[in-house]
Amino acid sequence: MKRIALLTMAAMFSFAACSKSDPQTNDPASEKDETVTVDDSAGSSINVNNSEDNISATTFARTVKVVYSSGGASVTGADGLSCSVSGNDVTITNNGDEVIMYELSGSSTDGFFKLYSSRKQGITLNSLTLTNPAGAAINNQSHKRTFMVVKGTNNIADGSSYSDEVSTEDMKAAIFSEGQLIFSGDGSLNVTATGKGGITSDDYVRFMDGATSVVVNSSAGHGVRGKDAIIVTDGNIDVSVSGTGKKGFSADTLVYIGGGVTKIDVTGSAGTVDGEVTGSAGIRADVRFEMTGGSLGITCSGSGSKGISSDNVGFFKGGKAIITCTGKNYGSSYNSKSAKGVKFDGNLYFSDNCSVVVNSSSNEGIEAKGLIQITGGTVYSYSAADDAINSGNHMNISGGYVYGRSFRNDGLDANGNMNISGGVVYASGAGSPEVALDANTERNYKLTISGGTVIAFGGIERGSSVSIPYVAVNYSKKTYYSLEGGDTNLMCLKSPDSAGTGMYIFGGGLSKGSSYKLVSGVTVSGGTSYFGGYYFTGATATGGSSTTVSAK
Questions:
Q1: What percentage of the chain's residues is helix, strand, coil (to nearest 5)?
Q2: What average pLDDT does range 53-80 have in this prediction?
Q3: In this predicted structure, what is the pLDDT of residue 182?
């Protein structure tokens, strides 16, 4: 978005224009951010801490063993069950009341395991290598909870053809289940999908054991899809997808990251799927995304791809997320798909001890069409082409550490009010007509700075309301600075290698009318570094040349 701006050292505020779209009026008080239980599209409850997902709470009546081999599969312990074996194609039906564990082992390049059951059950993958060239290798038609226990090294694959598919049944992935899939165990599972998805449940998928390793490579469908939810409370999950318009994680309701290590790589681009232009994404959560712990790494290189995408609300409360999107935008006019780091159609919240790092090459780094609220944590966003952080409604910052840097646009851009009352904010804009901090003054909204520490390179919105002391000076690019009051080092910082004219420091221990030393070219040591070394607290600065500045 182009703007008209004028910035001089004497003029504290810049002229700027924002999007002409009307801001949304989402009420943050209406968001259920105090619970991890949500309702899915069918009205049922999804509880990410459901104790029934713990396999230790289930007693299995017996174990049915299926061993695959070049001579055909053998089944033992299946008395009283309907069991069909044809070569390495095994189908078992449990119409009784027993809760049974099915243990699969051995190897076959042309086989499958298919299960019908009216009860919950477990499926143990015990050093199993199983490929079905005509469909799903594991096809669970039970609508009940299924525990997937991983032992040893397991390799599961589908084929490019799904000719085994029955018209009255779903079969959507190399590992498919109608009911919940709960992964645990101390082994590894490698899934290769060339016909459809990697792992899919028409209910939810949960990973909950820190000893479990799951690797999914899908060239056709989504990596992991839980129609109702994907829940990661522990484990090591590594997903790669390359199909057009496909997602690493996909859920119609909830994606929840509460622990473990999750890595997602998306190389597929946007494209036409079922007659509609669809973008690819690392994570797609239609209703809600929430992260409270663990580690999440997402890389997206396909055109029109997004790191995280949702039609509704997002919460970052804990854990560490690193999202890098290097893809270009896809298409033009209404058939286009933008490549963005994080994009929510509703509100977006950052709080507690979250750590979020976003880098975007072609569009916004972090965007919410609703409100963005930051009360804690560390939020870092860099965009090489558009706003670093953009809200369609208001942007409220009352705590945490926030870094927003844009090479060609605004650092932080709110299409409503921008209110900064606390925390540390480091923002840089590309220079006139773009600014570091932008609010939608064309619609009578305002930038208000009433607290915290704010460092802005490239100016802020003209007509803003500032009620804390500030200094305004020229600066040199790629230079370390310290701001000192007497013998006290208030802060150390590094200027960006590109930004608009003028450096402004608000708050940070300044007193109106007092004089300070701004020292340039210092060497910084010790202390705590934020934003990859652009801001420091408790550091020591030596050397450099000083200038006296007065706080206004």
A1: 5, 50, 45
A2: 97
A3: 98
